[in-house]
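Weekly modeling sync, notes
Attendees: AB, CL, MP (scribe)

Item 1: holo prediction request
CL wants a bound-state model with fructose -6-phosphate before deciding which constructs to order. AB pointed out that an apo prediction alone won't tell us much about the pocket. Agreed to run with the ligand included and paste results into these notes for async review.

Input as submitted:
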Amino acid sequence: MCGIIGYCGPKKTASILIEGLKRLEYRGYDSAGICIAGQGQFRIIKSKGKIKNLQNQLPDGLSGNYGIGHTRWATHGGVTDNNAHPHTDCAGKIAIAHNGIIENFEALKNILTHEGHKFQSETDSEVIAHLIEKYYKGNLEKAVKEAISLIKGTYGLVCMHVDEPGLIVGARNGSPLVMGIGENEMFLASDVTAIIAHTKQVVYIEDKEVVCITQNEFRTTDLNNREIEKEVEQVSWELQEIEKSGFSHFMEKEIFEQPESIKRAIIGRIVPELATAKLGGLNLSTNQLLNVERIKIIAAGTSFHAGLVAAYLLESIARLPCVAELASEVRYRNPIIERNSLYFAVSQSGETADTLYAMRELQRKGAIVLGICNVVGSSIARESNGGVYIHSGPEIAVASTKAFTSQISVFYLLCLLLSRMKDMSLETGSSFLENLQTIPINVGKILESRQKIKQLSKKYCHYKDFLFLGRGINYPVALEGALKLKEISYIHAEGYSAAEIKHGPIALINENTPSIVLVPDDRLREKIISNIKEIKARNGKVIALCVEGDEEIKKIADDTIEVPKVQEIFYPYVMIVPLQLFAYYSALELGRDVDQPRNLAKSVTVE
Ligand code: F6R
């Protein structure tokens, strides 16, 4: 949410900043700006809208050898050129770009205004520039430390002072900041995607740390000026992973990557001869795992839906009470930590504020919280008590797709591990594993049948409301299908348990409200067929996702999307992929901005 980049080096700074901002655009795309420093002055160019608007406004010959840039997702103040970052102090000598929220900005702004500071924007961030101005006595690093000691809230911050050429000071509290070490050049960014075209050598800045970079050096200290030794890490992502590689959109690419990304989540983690899984990152001994009496999963959005699938799975197969809860609700509920409970914080980005803060609250109360994350080195990955990476590779599209199937893959492995420690037999374990390993092929088959889904999207995308209905382990899949459709096509869609429609939602059914119904060949099939008939009796249209060759469903539904037959508990994989495609093609047909839908941003680092 909001992206930051800073650069010190010999290359054309404006190009480096713009290229970095384009890679960060998925984090926020309301407005953007850059500040280039050179020859004793700052040049600031800002523009609302996409980075290409900013790019179009860049004057020729914009030179300078260090600078900062920002892409914004508005929190305080409307989407205007003025509210875009970088912001400056009164004298225009200090420039800052900030991610996060300054909770006490009003109080600080009142004091500063009273002292004579003049504000140009409605943002909370601008107070930082004025605070630094207030404390600046020839040393930017020192002034930054004084300023941030007064700030309540979160920040990932980069700033420069005209009088200290070639220096960028960065600071972090709650919003990610990473430093990149290139050859004869240094970077600061809110995530590595902005800089891996230039370097894979990175240093993750921690909360309450301040970093100073120049072209060839860096120094990290805490707020008490103690030097901090930092480990230089190697990023494993390749540049092509953050490029579209011939696909029209990142979302399309990420949907189509799923056979591979699911394999990557599983590979190296199975022990076929013992029909079990190994998840070393959990940091828990067999005895500790055997003592687990219940599991709680906290997450938001799509990751929450993956958690709901996991809860169903762990309860029905591993026979452990398990619930998934919205992290945003857990945090403020003063949660009770029960003995022998194990917690999982699930997050693609590993930076979602709701999940991160809920995790911290649980840890404060003594809970062991394990992370299931995609982004290596992210806050949740680092602060959790252990965990498992899903290894999906970068997910750039704002709508999460491959992360969902990889997150559930890790939970299928966890389920196998826990079940095999208890009463699942070797034979059942082997069959579980065999079935899991067929999933990438089955997902591949669905991707091959995309034309049919595309046609159906064309036929139905002009309806204004949709219901998504599923039961059992596929109920969360219905929720996720509805979320995908609404977030990228802006069509109103609600997910329900098919059984629930008679308790209210059936009132919405008429010829203008189609229902997408998930009908696996499982125990509940007959009941779902009754639900379809109830919808048809009220003139509702039904698109059914059913198993290949299910003639009965074909007769009663208006349209069908066939999915490969899999073992009952594995249906979430083959049910979600057609729904992702349906959302994608509907959004495309409606001319939406698929990768950057309105009002959204990837990695929600504010509450
Ligand atoms: C939906 C979506 C969001 C995220 C949610 C949590 O497509 O992308 O709902 O799933 O913001 O994000 P992470 O998984 O990064 O914690």
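Recorded for review: The mean pLDDT is 95.
Action items: CL to compare against the apo run; MP to circulate these notes.
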